[in-house]
Amino acid sequence: MEPPPGAAENSKLRHVEKDVLIPVIMRDRAKELCSDKVQAFTKCCKETGFLMVVKCRKENTALKDCLVGYYSDPSFYEECKTEYLKQREEYRATGIKKKKQKITSNI
Which family does it belong to (predicted)? Predict the structure, then answer.
């Protein structure tokens, strides 16, 4: 079976899509997936104030490790790329931009 006309064109990514738009989706999804660590770090920062640099190292390291684990996972990138391509295809078909869900966290 032959792919629909323009299918190859639809899967090509521009520089800004690869280097900016998909990483934004990755960052947002990783924050959701690491939400327990985000909350722990946020709580620690609120409780310690100016000493957070010293006092919250453990929470910061746990958060960073969690986020970097997702950022460096090729399959996670592919998931986010697929999600982006779906959003782009929907936008091109309807002209309606998908509203971004606001994640309420203090980072």
Answer: Belongs to the CMC family.
